[in-house]
Specification:
Layout (H helix, E strand, L loop, with lengths): L1 E4 L5 H9 L5 E5 L5 H7 L5 E4 L9 E5 L1 H15 L5 E5 L5 H16 L10 E2 L4 H12 L7 E4 L2 H13 L9 E3 L16 E3 L2 H17 L7 E4 L2 E3 L9 E2 L7 E6 L22 E5 L6
Parallel strand pairs: 1-2, 2-3, 3-4, 4-10, 5-6, 5-7, 7-8
Antiparallel strand pairs: 9-11, 12-13, 13-14
Helix pairs in contact: 3-4, 5-6
Length: 288
């Protein structure tokens, strides 16, 4: 039996203490437990750490390529749309995901020969309200960016609401992107360009690592980084081309799935908007 400890505000620690000794292993979401607790619990049961690439312990790890995904998205905005004034809105400073995504943003700017900021343009706390606050601050700065890259989709939702209230058009006035690939992102107006995380694969790989660790406690530490997918939609300025209905579903050419990393840890060159877009089914409508 594997248990995912994903709670915060102290509940994760209480749950972990309760189940240690009653389960064969734990999958622990990054920062849901103090590092000292994870180290202590790992002496009793095998543990796999999920989503914290900065983990320097001897514990097994699995996570998404947050840095590579944001680098690919930023490179797309720089090369396909020729933007030069970009702003990154991060999550909490303690979030390993936010740090990795900001690092990918900076890497793409550096590779393009553009100035690299020392810190995100704003902290949106990974919440819709935080994204709205960040967008209002950027608009009030006197020289808004050409594109705002939010560290997750939830913040982007808040940012889009502020732009709509200010009667600014997306992407004509400001381009907006997110990260995570939540279901809501395709139903926004305009549909949100984002980076999709392999959520199902993350869970499956974490459990597989845990089962392998239970079977071979002394085996070598495993560290897996799974590729993300760039999902290009209209919020960044890419066109959405519609096709005829197929099998009762409305088929919308609105996404480009970036190829996984190759054997050398590299991705193909950033996709252009003119490239053929992968067909994505929009089989559900946003609930009112």
């Amino acid at each position: 039996m594997a248990v995912l400890i994903a709670s915060t505000r102290g509940a994760g620690r209480k749950l972990a203490r309760h189940v240690v000794g009653q389960v064969d292993g734990l999958v622990v979401l990054a920062r849901s437990l103090p590092v000292t607790d994870i180290a202590a619990f790992s002496r009793s049961v095998p543990i796999v750490v999920l989503a914290d690439r900065s983990n320097r312990s001897k514990l097994d790890y699995v996570g998404a390529d947050n840095r590579g995904g944001m680098r690919e998205l930023t490179a797309h905005l720089l090369s396909a749309h020729r933007f030069t004034r970009l702003a990154f809105v991060g999550g909490p400073a303690r979030s390993p995901d936010s740090r990795e995504r900001f690092a990918g943003f900076c890497q793409a700017l550096r590779e393009a020969g553009l100035p690299v900021p020392a810190q995100p343009a704003a902290d949106g706390g990974f919440t819709e309200a935080g994204g709205a606050r960040a967008m209002r601050a950027l608009l009030a700065s006197g020289k808004p960016p050409q594109a705002v890259l939010f560290g997750n989709d939830e913040m982007a939702v808040g940012g889009l609401q502020v732009l709509r209230a200010a009667r600014l058009r997306v992407p004509a006035n400001i381009a907006v992107t997110g990260f995570d690939g939540i279901a809501l992102s395709r139903h926004l107006q305009p549909p949100l360009t984002t980076v999709r995380q392999p959520m199902r694969d993350l869970g499956q790989q974490a459990v597989q690592l845990l089962l392998a660790r239970v079977a071979a406690p002394s085996s070598r530490r495993q560290s897996l980084v799974l590729p993300t997918q760039l999902v290009v939609r209209r919020s960044c300025g890419c066109p959405a081309r519609r096709a005829a209905a197929v099998g009762g579903f409305e088929m919308i050419d609105e996404t480009t799935a970036v190829s996984p990393l190759n054997a050398f840890g590299q991705r193909p060159a950033p996709s252009k908007c003119a490239h053929p877009l992968a067909v994505e089914a929009a089989s559900s409508r946003r609930q009112s």
